[in-house]
Every structure is written in C-alpha cells, then in structure tokens.
Amino acid sequence: MSERNVIIVGSGPAGLTAAIYAARASLKPLVIEGYQAGGQLMLTSEVENFPGFKHGIMGPDLMAEMRAQAERFGAEFISADVTKVDLAGPTKKVWVDSTEYQGKTVILSTGASANLLGLPNERRLMGKGASTCATCDGFFFRGKVVAVIGGGDSAMEEANYLTRHATKVYLIHRRSEFRASKIMVDRAKANPKVEFILNTVTEDILGENEVTGVRLHNTVENTKRDLALDGVFVAIGHTPNTKLFAGQITTDDKGYIKTSSEKSHVTATNIPGVFACGDVQDSRYRQAITAAGSGCAAALDAEHYLNEHA
What is the pLDDT of residue 310? Predict the structure, then answer.
C-alpha cells in the first residue's frame, strides 16, 4: 500500500480545483469523489456567474469539464463514498468500505447540503424553477413572481435580494414569529416588493416541466390554496457534511470545519496535514467560484506542508 501525497475527499468545485492544482504540482492526488459526485452544481441547471463562460454553462457540464481537467493532469478518481477516516499522526488513513488508503495530507471538500422541505416534487423540480440559492439563480427570474420559504436570516436576505430581479416576492413561513434577527425582518417588511404569508405550510411545489406554483395550507384558518409562481427558493439553511470527521476535526457551533491562517496555511484545520475547502468550511458565501478559490488554496497549502515535512 503506497502512501499518497494528497487524498481529496469530495468532488465539488472545491475538491476538483484542489485536484487540478495538486495534479499540476505532480503530487498525483487521489480523489475519492463519492457516488453522488460533483456537489450541489449537479442539481443546478444553467450557471451564468462562473468566470470564463460568457453564455453560461450547465452545472453538470461544468463539473464534468473540471473533472476531465484534473484527470488530464494525472489526478486519480475513485467513484465511491468514504466510510471512515483516521486523521491523527503523520500518515492519514481513509477507508472506502474495507479498503484502506494512506496519505501524507488530506483535503476535505465534502461540501454542505441545502436543507430541503421533503415535498413530493421538490427534488424533481430543482433547477427547473426550484432553487436553494438566490444569488446563484435570481437572475433567471427577471420580471417574474417568486416565493422564498423560510423564517431565518437567510430567508430574509434572499427575499430582499430577489426583489432586484423579480416583480414580486412572497415570503412563506409556517409560523407568525421568526428565527431571523429583528433588523432583517424589518428590512424585508419595509421592502414594497415583499409580501409575507405567515402561519402557512408549503405542502408541495406545482408544475410538470417547470415550477408553476405552490400548494399552501394555512394552519390557523385550516384552509388550502394554490399560489401561482414562476420560482420557489427554499431557504431553511444548510448542513455541512462533517459527520464523517466527528471527534477529529474542530467545527463551529453549526458544524462547519474551522480553518485558520496559522503558518500561512489559510485552509489548515486543527490537525496538521489536514486541510478543508469549499462549503464544508464556508457558511457565508457558498458560491462555486469561492469554493474553487478555496480549493486552490487548499492544494497550495498541502504542497507547502509537504515541502516543509519532506
């Protein structure tokens, strides 16, 4: 069993960019990409805000191009899920079922999963009018009517952002009180394009090939109605994919991996030789381009670490 220079866990924009940089540095990275490879962009239709594609590119196509680029420079891919890790000591151990892989460094890029409502048509219509990212997809709803579902700061922020593009934004929340801070709620309420629909549960997203509306249930009046819409944004938070590293990697109170700039390794975790990039350590921006940038940083940090410990 040969010890790898770099093992990358995850294959979204962060992991694939890390793979490109590590491979070009002749580090021959091993990428364990997971059975559902490519990250959240695999659920996205057209991506118009990733530099270099003036006419946009489909999310899965962008991931395929990045993967092929990493492969071209010598990255090795395993299409399976990591089942266990032991990150202590100079040699890191990563398992896929009973097969053990060893690495001098490990880059964690497992991302974060958008919390969904669990509605019958939610996943089917994702990328077809349903979205979990207003910054990513708001531009497609110019002159349209949309809804944001949620009651936290992210829901308020997304509702306000969407008014830059949409003519009307409904903010649908299952209660009359909000988890969001008062200043964020007041800002949304002061926006003339935002209309609040409270004490209302969204029972389903409507549409065959694209979103046409939502089915709502008012829990106070016990009434149901269909609301015509062009788009739906689910804004009930994200969950970082860090369960695999529990008890080994330091995370914040929301579960995101903590990284530091100690010794100029900005993606370094609490374990020497282990680095993190992308949405698994970024609870703020969550964009493909910022994930790719942190993937570049993680690969460079891993390379510097290897040079320091040669």
Answer: 83
pLDDT of 54 above 80? yes
pLDDT digits (tens, 9 = 90+) for 249-301: 999 999 999 998 655 679 999 999 999 999 999 988 888 999 999 999 999 99
**Per-residue confidence (pLDDT) for residue 141, from 0 to 100:** 97
Positions marked catalytic: 133, 136-137
| List of residues 6+ apart from 27 with CB closer than 8 A | 5, 6, 299, 302, 303, 306
Q: Report which of 201, 198, 235 is spatially closest to residue 216, judged by C-alpha positions.
A: 201
Count of residues making up the chain: 310
Of 102, 93, 110, 106, the residue nearest 272 (C-alpha) = 106
CA distance 195 to 272: 50
For residue 257, what pLDDT is reported? 97
- The token pair at 169 is 């934004």
The residues that bridge with 149 in the sheet, in sequence order, are 172, 234
Residue 181: both structure tokens together? 């801070």
Kindly state the percentage of the chain with pLDDT values over 90.
86
Per-residue confidence (pLDDT) for residue 47, from 0 to 100: 86
CA atoms of 45 and 223, how far apart (whole Å):
34
DSSP 3-state helix, strand, coil percentages of the chain (rounded to 5)? Answer: 30, 30, 45
Beta strands in the chain (DSSP E): 3-9, 30-32, 46-47, 57-58, 76-78, 84-86, 92-96, 99-108, 112-114, 130-131, 145-149, 168-172, 194-197, 200-206, 213-218, 223-228, 231-234, 238-240, 274-276
Tokens of 114: 């958008």
- Residue 277's nearest CA partner among 107, 161, 33 is 107
